[in-house]
Automatic annotation (TrEMBL):
Residues 27-272 form the NADP-dependent oxidoreductase domain. Transmembrane segments: none annotated. The active site is at Y60. This is Aldo/keto reductase. InterPro entries: AKR, Aldo/ket_reductase_CS, NAD(P)_OxRdtase_dom_sf, NADP_OxRdtase_dom. Substrate binds at H118. The record marks K85 as: Lowers pKa of active site Tyr. GO terms for molecular function: oxidoreductase activity, acting on the CH-OH group of donors, NAD or NADP as acceptor. The keyword Mitochondrion does not apply. Pfam families: Aldo_ket_red. The keyword Oxidoreductase applies. Belongs to the aldo/keto reductase family.
Length: 286
């Protein structure tokens, strides 16, 4: 896998002037449920395979393990893209600032590439979407993160924070895979200039046994996982599959030597059935 992976332009320092867009590697490595020594092991293996974009979160409890793998890799900082996320109990300003400090200490970084609000918590008493976003802007303005964004935000959440602050999230990371293709939310993100990032891009493995994907994979002489990852890439999405198996890490990244036709893309699009493998954003509360 080349380190010159296709990348999406991402506007940095949203709402401020004089800054240049940089590019987020379109294919990254997910780390949900990879904890303890497994986190360091998996991220070390992923970096050795060639991944340069790692997705972690305060909630995953693995930032220190990710940080150890980054430090041990010897890979120059400018070649890495690291995303982390604000945990649900940390939305209030003091908690957010303190937990961001802990994230940076655990990751061993001076500057993070992307910090996301993990869940909107729109129905949680005492939590205000706009207040949380204002704190994220404060973190952005501190210069310790290159871009800020959100995760699991619905259109009304996006409009609320943008209207109140004038600062548009760089990214909206949402559950997105062939069984939940999120056409409408993707269109809203596009309209607002927000990059959509797919979490659980393989539907946590539940999409992999689909007979139509098996047919397409056989047609292309690739695996169903490769068909799915290619489908995300060709839709212009940022995609962060997770696996703890190095041979799957390699296979999941070996997706730049083939292309799905329009008909094959449409065949994957047609698999949508509104299946969520994770929580609905409106139901997640502290
Ligand atoms: N923002 C959010 O709210 C949110 C929520 C969920 C996830 N995420 C992020 O998105 C990342 C990806 O999502 P996810 O981990 O939930 O699910 P996923 O990447 O869709 O699927 C992971 C599952 O698929 C298996 N797998 C991966 N590659 C495979 C292959 N080539 N062949 C067969 N099986 C394969 C893995 O098993 P093995 O490990 O055993 O290979 C694991 O069980 C997370 O790790 C996390 O970073 C964000």
């Amino acid at each position: 896998m080349s380190t010159a992976l296709p990348a999406k332009a991402l506007t940095l320092r949203q709402g401020t002037s004089g800054t240049e867009p940089v590019a987020i590697p379109q294919l990254g490595f997910g780390t949900y449920k990879v904890t303890g020594p497994d986190a360091e092991r998996a991220v070390t293996a992923a970096l050795a395979v060639g991944y340069r974009h790692i997705d972690t979160a305060q909630m995953y409890g693995n930032e220190a393990g990710v940080g150890r793998a980054l430090a041990a890799s010897g890979i120059p900082r400018e070649q890495l893209w690291i995303t982390s996320k604000l945990n649900n109990p940390n939305h209030r300003r003091d908690d957010a600032l303190r937990s961001f400090d802990a994230t940076m200490a655990d990751l061993g970084l001076d500057v993070l590439d992307l910090f996301l609000v993990h869940w909107p918590l729109a129905a949680s008493p005492g939590i205000d979407l706009v207040d949380t976003w204002r704190t994220m802007i404060e973190i952005l303005n501190s210069g310790r993160v290159r871009a800020i964004g959100v995760s699991n935000y619905q259109p009304e959440h996006l409009h609320t924070i943008i209207d109140a602050t004038g600062v548009t999230p760089a990214v909206n990371q949402i559950e997105l895979h062939p069984y939940l293709n999120q056409t409408e939310l993707r269109a809203v993100d596009d309209e607002l200039g927000i990059i959509t990032e797919s979490w659980s891009p393989l539907g946590r493995g539940r999409v992999l046994d689909d007979p139509e994907l098996a047919r397409l994979a056989a047609e292309m002489d690739v695996t169903p996982a490769q068909v799915i990852i290619r489908w995300h890439l060709q839709h212009g999405l940022v995609v962060i599959p997770k696996t703890t198996h190095p041979e799957r890490m390699r296979a999941n990244a070996d997706v730049f030597g083939f292309e799905l036709t329009d008909a094959q893309m449409a065949a994957v699009d047609a698999l949508d059935r509104g299946l969520r493998t994770g929580s609905h954003p409106d139901r997640v509360q502290i």
